[in-house]
Write a structure and sequence with these properties.
The protein is mostly helical. It has 8 helices and 2 strands. The chain folds into 2 domains: 168 residues, Up-down Bundle (Ferritin); 58 residues, Arc Repressor Mutant, subunit A (Orthogonal Bundle). 75% of the residues lie in helices and 2% in strands. The protein is elongated, with a radius of gyration of 25 Å.
């Protein structure tokens, strides 16, 4: 650990906090663009299915998978950068004490290992920032109190919990491409449009109405259809 005076430390942390905010905004922008890209690809996938072009449909579906994977990496990176920002803000308040600095080492390592390498223009800036912050990490030769180790383990548990929350957000923002039965229902709806009948769809596709309603609710959640109850009927219109 390179010793730096308090003034230089505060300046380093202040600069890092500004940089983190900039990188978080950049990642959020990429995430939003990926979300829009996923919606475009899904529409193209459905159109290809409607035209009976299975190969083209599969191509779009595979691209959606790649977009989803990148979005998942970005979401995890956002959580790690936020954890780093919170830790630096704490150091800014209480100073460089071991129970605060030890978890910082784990967070910096997690950011390094999990940051998307294909976002080169962001990755270079983040790596430079992490290199600058490494002077704050305690040397291996400096004894670490047991309370610091406990704090580090607690930080890992918090990050694991945050990672699970990120996975849930990905599932919500980037739903997987519907399997064939759901795609079949969606194709049927696109063809029938205003003349759609729940009962007739159930008969035509040989799908129980209860199962069909589950599929329709899933498609509605994805924003692909809108379910409207028909007046005086137990069915639904799309």
């Amino acid at each position: 650990m390179v010793l730096i005076d308090e003034h230089d430390e505060r300046r380093l942390i202040s600069r890092a906090l500004i940089n983190i905010s900039i990188q978080i905004e950049k990642l959020n922008r990429v995430y939003r663009n990926l979300k829009n890209k996923r919606e475009q690809l899904f529409s193209m996938c459905v159109d290809a299915e409607l035209r009976g072009n299975r190969e083209e449909s599969i191509m779009y579906a595979e691209e959606i998978v790649q977009v989803r994977r990148l979005a998942e990496l970005i979401q995890k990176s956002l959580i790690l950068l936020e954890a780093l920002r919170v830790r630096l803000e704490t150091i800014e308040i209480v100073g460089s004490i071991p129970p605060i600095l030890v978890p910082l080492k784990d967070i910096i390592q997690d950011v390094r290992e999990n940051f998307p390498t294909n976002l080169t223009y962001i990755n270079l800036e983040v790596n430079k920032m992490l290199e600058d912050l490494s002077v704050l990490i305690p040397s291996e030769s400096i004894p670490v109190p047991s309370s610091s180790i406990e704090a580090s383990n607690e930080a890992k548990r918090i990050l694991e919990s945050a990672s699970r929350l990120a996975s849930e957000k990905i599932k919500e923002d980037f739903p997987e491409v519907p399997p064939s039965i759901e795609m079949e229902v969606y194709r049927y709806i696109k063809e029938k449009k205003s003349s759609f009948s729940l009962e007739q769809c159930s008969k035509d596709l040989n799908i129980p109405q209860e199962k069909l309603m589950d599929i329709l609710k899933l498609l509605e959640k994805e924003g692909k259809v809108k379910i409207v109850s028909e007046r005086g009927s137990e069915g639904s219109a799309i």
